[in-house]
Amino acid sequence: MPPVVEARNLVKKYQNLTAVDSINFQIEAGESFGFLGPNGAGKTSTIKMMGCVSPVSGGSLFVLGQDVTREPRAIKEKLGVVPQRENLDPDLTVGQNLIVYARYFNIPRPVAQARSKEVLELFNLQDRIKSPIATLSDGMKHRLLIARALINQPSILFLDEPTTGLDPQARLLVWQKLSYLQSQGITIVLSTHNMEEASQLCNRLIIMHLGKILAEGAPAEMVKKYVGKEVLELRLSTGEKPGFLEKLKQSGMDGAVSAEVGDTLYFFDRNPATLGNLTSLARQVVQRQATLEDVFFKLTGKALEE
Amino acid sequence: MNYPSWRAYRVWQRDRDVFFRMWKAEFIPYFVEPLVILTALGFGLGGFIGLVGQQNYLQFLTPGIVVAYAMFTATFECTYGSYIRMEMQRTFDAIVSTPLSIEDVITGEILWGATRSLMTSVAIILVALAFKVVPAPSVVLVPLVAVLTGLMFGSISMFFTSLAPAISSFNYFFTLFITPIYFFSGVFFPLSNLPPVFQTISSFLPLAPAVNLSRAFFYGEVHPGLLWDVAFLLLLTIAFFLASLVTMRRRLIK
User: Fold this and answer.
1) Digit-coded pLDDT (tens) for B224-245
2) B144 to each of B66, B122, B130, B205, how far by Cα in Å?
3) Shortest CA distance to A203 belongs to which of A192, A189, A224, A184?
4) Which domain holds residue A54?
5) Does B105 touch chain A (CB under 8 A)?
6) Which of A26, A206, A269, B210 has the most CB atoms within 10 Å of its CB?
7) Residue A305's pLDDT is what?
8) A71: nearest CA in chain B?
């Protein structure tokens, strides 16, 4: 099967700023594909270009086999888009939001009504069909946004930061629904700066930074490749870092520190034994599984969320 | 330049549905204000004024008020209304991620503004009839003039909205543009009462030809000179409509 999205040397420029700097990627049908990166990485710009609402500044971009610059209407017909900022129609009720949105796709009213019922049930909103938007909680609005994006039975669902600002419970519910949708054969494409979201939801992802792609692959494989299995964190007491680093050097292990943030030192893929009695000098020793956060750190020297 | 498609109708339907969901809040003010004006000025002030030409003041005033309120209705809809939908509710963003284009959205908004003008004009004509203003049969064409007026002011307003940096910018638009137009387009007194220089300026205010047309059709005084008024309205409408398509795309599609 041909890829559902194919970008070649894709560029997005805003006046003097290059938000997306000649990137190449492909998304296959049925994937759950993520763009992971901090704010300003170029994720939203890329999603908007794929959604045919932001013009391509250079390179080529094909979605569902069609050129976004030539066939935006035909492409948009088959997309579901969940925006970063909520844009439900506050002048209409929950049910009317779906019916009016369906009309933009020329979906006949009886079909729109049946599908509205379906998607509201899927997102546990069936009891709110007559509610004004203002009476919904943030979590409900978020679910309704996703429900609305499904009204045209899209082949691809684009979600820009789908759970930003949601409490953990609401976030979990959204993740479950998205996994379910993927199991139904919808291609899911999302952007996120949350590494947990990326590793939970995506079977493949791209790490972006300053408009460029730094790495690409399955989350677990990327972690294994760039960081290893485990990370050792030594949290030192204030002011003890220079002394500790000196001791590390004396034991011939000065290259062992993978990263440092404040008074915390990170050792990728090491267990405490290799550091010997040095660990006893730390205020706290944490041994944990390596994550995408560490991959990002390794690649950029920066934290994902800051 | 990108042109709108028939899908603009979908936006018109959206605005219509919202309107009829809360028509009491939307419609009553536009109905009451002209009623107050016709009563206060037509009867109250009109008692002082006596005849304007062959007509009493209420008769003179009514056709002008019809198109003036057609102007206000479309202008409010395509300034405050459209701006709120565009910037605060982000409704335009939501719509352009469906098969509709930004040009469809803008066109639908202006068409809806003109539809509101049509409804306002019919309401005022009915009030005037209740006040015993006797029109000629050609009065049935006055709502058409109101639609043209609505399209023109909807387009002018949309153009301004596309450039407005903030919602408070509309204060300038209304104070510096709409209010002088309201008072100097021949709604309240014949333009021939003004000094010659002001007469010339006034005849180029966009509402003046609409007032001419409305008054002529209201009382059946149709003459070839009205073609100039129609041409003026159409020309201005087309110019501002096309300009607003360009400036709105520039503002919203980045």
Assistant:
1) 999 999 999 999 999 999 999 9
2) 11, 10, 21, 19
3) A189
4) 5-219
5) no
6) B210
7) 63
8) B99
Same domain? A63 vs A93: yes
Q: How many CA atoms lie within 13 A of A203 on its CB side?
A: 12
Establish if A294 belongs to a structural domain. no
A124 and A189 belong to one structural domain: yes
**What are the tens digits of pLDDT across the range B129-176?**
999 899 999 999 999 999 999 999 999 999 999 999 999 999 999 999
Cβ separation A92–B95 shorter than 8 A: no
- Give pLDDT tens digits along chain A (306 positions): 889 999 999 999 999 899 999 999 999 999 999 999 988 899 999 999 999 999 999 999 999 999 999 999 999 999 999 999 999 999 999 999 999 999 999 999 999 999 999 999 999 999 999 999 999 999 999 999 999 999 999 999 999 999 888 899 989 999 999 999 999 999 999 999 988 899 999 999 999 999 999 999 999 999 999 999 989 888 988 888 888 888 888 887 777 788 888 888 888 887 777 777 777 778 888 889 999 989 998 888 777 665
**Kind plus residue range of the DSSP H or E element containing A62:** strand A58-63
Q: Per the structure block, which two tokens stand in for B197?
A: 């220089």
Torsion of CA B35, B168, B241, B22, to 10 degrees: -50
Residues A48 and A169 in one domain: yes
Phi, psi (5° rounding) for residue A23?
-105, 155
Helix/strand/coil percentages in chain A, nearest 5: 40, 25, 35
A95 touches chain B (CB under 8 A): no
Q: Is B84 on the interface with A (CB under 8 A)?
A: no
CB proximity under 8 Å: B 13-32 to A: 13-14, 17-18, 21-22
Chain B residues with CB under 8 Å of A154 CB are none
Task: Identify which of B39, B206, B10, B174 has the alpha carbon closest to the alpha carbon of residue A100.
Answer: B10
| Residue A288 burial by Cβ neighbours in a 10 Å radius (0-12, 13-18, 19+) | exposed
Provide the 3-class DSSP secondary structure of residue A58. strand
A202 plus A254 within the same structural domain = no
CATH of the domain at A193: 3.40.50.300
Residue A306 resides in a domain = no
**A180 and A72 in a common domain:** yes
The domain total for chain A is: 2
Q: Spell out which residues of chain B touch residue A91, defining contact as CB-CB under 8 Å.
A: 18, 21-22, 89
Handedness of CA B65, B66, B69, B75 (dihedral sign): negative
Let me know: does A235 contact A260? Beta carbons within 8 Å: no
**Residue type at position A172:** L
The CATH number of the domain holding residue A255 is: 3.30.70
The pairing of strands A32-36 and A187-192 is parallel
